[in-house]
Amino acid sequence: MVKCQVILDALERIAPRHLAEEWDNPGLLVGSPAQEVNRILVALDVSDHVVHQALEQGAQMIIAHHPLIFRPLKKLRTDLPLGHRLSVLLKHDIAVAAAHTNLDIAQGGVNDVLAEAIGLSKLSSFVITAQHEDGAVESMGRIGCLPSPMTIRDFALQVRQALPTQHVRFVDAGARPVRKVALCSGAGAEFIGKAAALGADAYVTGDVKYHDAQHAAELGMHVIDAGHFGTEFPVVEQLAARLRQELAEVPGGIQVVTDRSSRDFFELA
Predict the structure, then answer these.
(1) Strands 222-225, 169-171: parallel, antiparallel or unpaired by DSSP?
(2) Do 260 and 45 touch, CB atoms closer than 8 A?
(3) Burial class of 81 by CB neighbour count within 10 A (0 to 12, 13 to 18, 19+)
(4) Residue 157 included in any domain
(5) In this structure, how many other beta carbons lie within 10 angstroms of the beta carbon of residue 70?
(6) DSSP-derived 3-state class of residue 51
(7) Number of domains in the chain
(8) Which residue, among 221, 219, 186, has the nearest Cα to 203 in the 3D structure?
(9) How buried is 230 (Cβ within 10 angstroms: 0-12 exposed, 13-18 middle, 19+ buried)?
(10) What is the pTM for the complete model shown?
(11) What are the start-end ranges of the H helices in the chain?
(12) Residue 93 CB burial class (10 angstroms; 0-12, 13-18, ≥19)
């Protein structure tokens, strides 16, 4: 077994906490840096289903993209979902850590995994979150190019087939071919105007509302809503692979397993 802190250090190398947005809550959320771990479960959410997997597989730690605790807790009621989940985790000494917007922004993180999955290359920054003296920038989302132009319908089909989702919704803004694509995993509708201003032919994100779609259509830019789950779940396998690499030489050995059975909450009727 290894100390939880060793795993937190590895996670810090993959997705440094300084990258996170001010409002975010990444890092160790349940447990102690001193507790011992020999198996980690990597997941998108710390749901009851994921906690059950951790118990079944003997994992002493869950690393998730979405923070289990996001806002300050004023009470801990074990008859309510979050309180019950926390009581189970504490009872079984299962630590929980999150890498949220820091993993969105990090190189090789959520947005890079999404871009690769849907066929984009020549990636550049999108919504810049920090700029350093050496000229390096950090950004939420990415902009990239397809190998050749496609219709929006064909690109929407390609996105659906590439991601763990039953369907995508798309805004067809006209005959404009799709070559330059902006993206932001999760919920990025607030950046529709930015994507259009940067000359994107299409914008891929999740959780798009009606008036967001209307705004994109008025700007003449296609939008593909591939869902919050669909745009983010692919990072689970990649994060697990990077943790295995970071921890490969750590004495004591550590196993990293992934949540393979969670599904989007939304289904088609």
Answers:
(1) antiparallel
(2) no
(3) exposed
(4) yes
(5) 14
(6) helix
(7) 2
(8) 221
(9) buried
(10) 0.95
(11) 4-14, 48-57, 81-91, 101-105, 110-117, 152-162, 192-197, 210-219, 228-232, 235-247
(12) middle
What are the tokens at 227?
A: 């869902």
- Are the C-beta atoms of residues 50 and 259 closer than 8 Å to each other? yes
Q: Give the structural domain span for 42.
A: 2-100+233-258
Look at the chain and count its residues. Answer: 269
pLDDT along the chain (269 residues), means of 10: 95 97 96 97 98 97 97 94 97 98 98 98 96 90 98 98 96 97 97 98 98 98 98 98 94 91 91
Residue 125 sits in the same domain as residue 93: no
Whether residue 45 sits in one domain with residue 62: yes
The count of other CB atoms within 10 Å of the CB of residue 5 is: 14
Q: 20 is written with which tokens?
A: 């996170």
Q: H or E stretch including 27? A: strand 27-30
Give the burial class of 110: count Cβ atoms within 10 A of its Cβ; 0-12 exposed, 13-18 middle, 19 or more buried. buried
Same domain, 111 and 92: no
